[in-house]
UniProtKB/TrEMBL annotation:
<keyword id="KW-0349">Heme</keyword>
<keyword id="KW-0408">Iron</keyword>
<feature type="domain" description="Cytochrome c">
    <location>
        <begin position="76"/>
        <end position="162"/>
    </location>
</feature>
<dbReference type="Pfam" id="PF13442">
    <property type="entry name" value="Cytochrome_CBB3"/>
</dbReference>
<protein>
    <submittedName>
        <fullName>Cytochrome c</fullName>
    </submittedName>
</protein>
<keyword id="KW-0479">Metal-binding</keyword>
<dbReference type="InterPro" id="IPR009056">
    <property type="entry name" value="Cyt_c-like_dom"/>
</dbReference>
<dbReference type="InterPro" id="IPR036909">
    <property type="entry name" value="Cyt_c-like_dom_sf"/>
</dbReference>
């Protein structure tokens, strides 16, 4: 019969051997080139599920400590957010009735269509993702270059304007800053915003 001491030694050696084998197997897999990293094919569904689930859990755990401005859904904020969206986000996330850019078509995982009517786009959650980005995807961290105010504005836009029509989108993006006067600039020559 084995002594307690030699039993413990056997367990420790076995566990260590398993870890060494796993690490060696992992390295062998990595350097073999067997895993296809190309963005031209879809992610393996298991990998995609693991990565997306990790993202969702991380966002839910971290988002919510930033406080939205009281006038979050003001027309001024939504308008500024629309301009930023068009200039910075539409390339990956798309705009109504417009073909997706070559960048948006080429990234893997693809960016979600944030303006589709079926989205929820809760501002506090979206603010966190826009500010911090999503590692290992094409989603950049805009907190590095944009103020919190600008990020809340674009979060307000994607929340308030889910399912937006092409006309309203164009009006918000290119319209004049004053309310009630937006239709004038819809098909007009250059609006105030275009001149900037
Ligand atoms: C270069 C491409 C790219 C650009 C530019 C980009 N995004 Fe993204 N975005 C992505 C990708 C890809 C994802 C999906 C990440 C994932 O699968 O976890 C994403 C995810 C998001 C999400 C999370 C959606 C969700 O369901 O949780 C939000 C919100 C978002 N982006 C907002 C923006 C905003 C606002 C801008 C512009 C200020 C922007 N993105 C610019 C690629 C981009």
């Amino acid at each position: 019969m084995l002594s307690l001491r030699s039993r413990i030694t056997t367990v420790v050696v076995t566990v260590a051997a398993v870890f060494i084998l796993l690490a060696a197997g992992g390295l062998a897999f990595m350097y073999s080139g067997a895993y296809d990293v190309s963005a031209s094919s879809r992610d393996n569904p298991i990998v995609a599920k693991l990565l997306h689930g990790t993202y969702e859990a991380s966002m839910h755990r971290r988002a919510g400590s930033d406080v939205a401005p009281g006038d979050l859904l003001s027309l001024e904020n939504i308008r500024s957010g629309a301009r930023m969206y068009d200039a910075t986000c539409a390339v990956c996330h798309g705009a109504p009735d417009r073909p997706l850019s070559p960048i948006g078509q080429g990234i893997q995982p693809a960016a979600p269509a944030l303006l589709s009517a079926s989205r929820r786009n809760k501002p506090a959650l979206m603010f966190w993702t826009i500010k911090h980005g999503v590692n290992m995807t094409a989603m950049p961290s805009f907190g590095k270059t944009q103020s919190d105010q600008a990020i809340w504005q674009v979060a307000a836009f994607i929340y308030a304007e889910r399912g937006i029509s092409k006309d309203k989108y164009d009006q918000l993006v290119h319209g004049r800053a004053e309310t009630g006067n937006t239709s004038l600039s819809l098909h007009g020559p250059a609006s105030e915003a275009d001149k900037q």
